[in-house]
Structures are given as structure tokens and as C-alpha cells.
Amino acid sequence: MPHPRAVSRRLLAVSSALVLIKSTVLALAPGAAAEPATPVAYPPGATATRFTGLAFDACTAPPAATLDAWRASSYRALAVYVSGANRTCRQPELTSSWVTKVSRLGWRLLPVHKGLQPPCGARPSDTKISRTPATARAQGTAAARQATDQAKTLGMLPGSALYNDIENYSQTDSGCRTAVLSYLSAWTKELHRTGYVSGVYMNLTLGARQLAAAYASTTYARPDALWIARYDDASSLTGWSGITDNAWAVHQRAKQYRGSHDERHGGVTVNVDSDRVDAPVATVAYPYTATGTDRAQARGGPSADAPVTTSYAAGAALRVVCQTPGSTVATTPVWDRLADGSYVSDHYVSTPSATGYSAPLPRCAQPFQVTAAHGLTERTGPGSGYAAAGSLPQGALAWVTCQRSGAKVRANTVWDRLDDGRYVTDQYVATPAAGAYSPPLPRC
Q: Which element (helix H / strand E) includes 96?
């Protein structure tokens, strides 16, 4: 994304066609057989983390001491440039220990890959995407692999959202458009294959509208989240000109609304861009220890009836990725999912709360895109006979916490319980196992 020490900001005087996506009544309906939704293959222990609030980005990741001082600000998340051929700023602070330290301070991280750029835009010196679609797709796959390799090195686990930074490009060059969309489609598919969530950063009028125009295309895989740049000092995540509010509608948006400027918090000044975020971010493991006099038993699910997979002596190190409700043990119904996919009752873990959830740990959930062309009805229970409680438009993320059997929809009896307690039929959600349960999601 633009920054004065890395990228010169330049506007192209190019008009762009408005995106017309039909608004419809949201009800059950069949989805497309091919793209745009592709399933995410989350491995055991994976969870997605969501952030809602103000974020900033600087060209170089600030020292942990700076971020400690900046807890006096309204920001609670920041973007970090983790990889890419066109990442220009040095990152001396960006290590796995830094990620752990700032995460424990309460910061959420938006990992950015600044790789190949459009063949008809960005800086002349940038390494560019090929105009040959097949080559562009191969480059997008390679970019995803580079980003995930670096994310893993930094301790950003599967379930993390990784954002591909695509700078301004001509909106009238059709071959360039095809190259960019082919590249980003392959980026998304490869991230999904390895269990990561796909994000894209683009200028609103010089890139994002073209991505939105392909929102329902059966040619290109659709990213899970969109982060736009529009320097109008308006931080709203709706009402984006040329992009309907039904696109990337459910915790899937971010906006960089103010460009380079100095801010001072806690006695420390940093040059930043400002962002409003309601979208997936990085997932990390938080270090805690096993407590109590008995060995803490790790189980295959968040229940005292689930089979034991291993046990931990008091004082043993535990890597907790998220928390979820389950059967009550002593004073708490909270269970901690470990990085290996097993569950330990929070009663036996050194988290701050003895009875409830503990910040900054997120709730366990794995998002998948809604495939229904006309949207999907949320219900109060696992069946079409239960009351409607809301709706999700096509391409929205269904944040699934567990699966259970329910009323049959077509030949599918699996229903997905969402993180708000509502249910949707799995028939129209892009989970990996069509018509069956999708590990590692637990049973409700």
C-alpha cells in the first residue's frame, strides 16, 4: 500500500465503470458449480481471528516499545509487510518473537504481501505480473506460497488472513485487468488450499471496482476480504462508490482513509496511514501454562466426554490459539483450542479469567464463503422449520464454530452453527466436504 518512503502516490485520470450487482431477497438458492467460492482446507488447530476498530500501517514495523507506548492511542491493530518482491522497507523488528510480544500487548496484525504489480501501473521499477494469464496464475500461486511460508516463520498460523497489495493501474487496459484478476484468483485458491484466508488491498477507483465487477464470476476465485484505499478522511465501511454493500458484507472490509501523516501517542511519534477495519487478521498462538495438581487432559473436542489425546503436567507450556464454549468443568464452560487442534478445559490453563473468556484470545471460528447466488437464510436452529434470524449475501463469510445434523436440504443433513449462535445449512457454504462433516470443525 502507498507510503512516502516506499511508493509515490499518483492518481491516474481514468474513468471506471460502476459495478452493478443485483440486490435480491436473501433466501436459500443454489450456488455456482465452479468459481467464485473455493473451500478453505483448515488444518487442525487453525482458527480465524477477526478485528473491528482502528488500525494503522507504517512502512517499517515499529519496535515493541513503540507499540507499548501507542496503547495510549485509539489504534488496536497494525499492518505489517511480511513478504513480496516489491516490499521496499527493511523490517529489522519483524520476527516471530516480535509477533508474540506485540500480540500479548493486545495488538492485532494485518499481514501484507507486496509482490508483483500490474503490468499497466504501479512504479516503473516494480517487478510486474505477466500479461499471459497462465503465467499470471502461476505467479499468483507462487506469491501465496511465499506469503504463507513467511507467515509461518513469523508465527502467523493457518486461519490468518494475508493481504495482497495491488497498487494503482489503468482501468482501460483489458489485458492488464485479466492479468491482475488471474493473479489474484490463483493467490486466493492457493491460500485456501493451505488453510489461509485471502485478502486484497486496492485503490477504490483504480483497482477495487474491477475486482468487485468479478465478484460473482465463475472464472475467478473471490478473495475473502477487501481492503480499499480512499483518502477522503471518511472511515465508513459502507457506501463505497461503485461497490455494492452486499459485496464483502460480513466482517470482510477495511478502508485506508487517511494517508501519510505523523501521530504522537505515549510520547512517541510515528508516520502512519490510518485504517478502519472489520475483517480477518492474523492468528497467533498465545503462550500459557497448565495449572492444577492433576495432569491437564487434552481432548479431541471441547467436552469432558471427548477422547483424551494427551495430558500435561502442571507448568507445562501450552500454545493456545482460541477459546470456545463446551461442557462445564468446575467453574467454567470455556475450552482452549491448542495449536495442535486438541482442547483443554480453561480451568486447567493459566489464562487471566477463571470463569469466562480471556482477552486477547479470539473465539474459535473458521470462515467459509456463502455460495448461494441469492444469499442464505440464518435460522435459530438446524432446520428450515426454525425461525429466520438473519441472512448472509452471496460471498459473505459464514463464521462456523461447529457442525451438527439437522433437517435435510437437498441431500445434505449437515448444518453449520455460526459464531453468533445462528445456523445455516451447509449445502450453500463452501466447506471442503460437500454433504458431509468437514474436519477439523468439531461437532456441536
A: helix 96-104
| 88 has pLDDT over 90 | no
Q: How do beta strands 296-299 and 412-418 pair?
A: unpaired
Q: 35 pLDDT band (50/70/90 cuts)? A: confident
List the beta bridge partners of residue 268: 265
Per-residue 3-state assignment (H helix, E strand, C coil) for 273-333: EEEEEEEEECCCCEEEEECCCCCEEEECCCCCCCCEEEEECCCCEEEEEEEEEEEEECCEE
- 191-219: burial string, b at 16+ Cβ within 10 Å, e else: bbbbbbbbbbbbbbbbbbbbbbbbbbeee
Q: Which of 224, 279, 232, 231 is nearest to 254 (CA)?
A: 279
How far from chain centre, in Å, is Cα 161?
3
Q: Which whole number is the average pLDDT over 127-150?
A: 98
Closest to 363 (Cα-Cα) out of 320, 423, 300, 332: 320
Separation between Cα atoms, residue 90 and residue 423, nearest integer Å: 46
Supply angle C-alpha 273, 274, 280, rounded to 5: 110
Long-range CB contacts for residues 7-12, cutoff 8 Å, separation at least 24: 7/88, 7/122, 7/123, 7/167, 8/123, 9/259, 10/168, 11/168, 11/206, 12/121, 12/168, 12/169, 12/170, 12/171, 12/206
Per-residue pLDDT, 18: 30
- How high is the pLDDT of residue 14? 32
Element (H, E) at 67: helix 64-69
Query: Whole-angstrom Cα distance, residue 125 to residue 243?
Result: 31
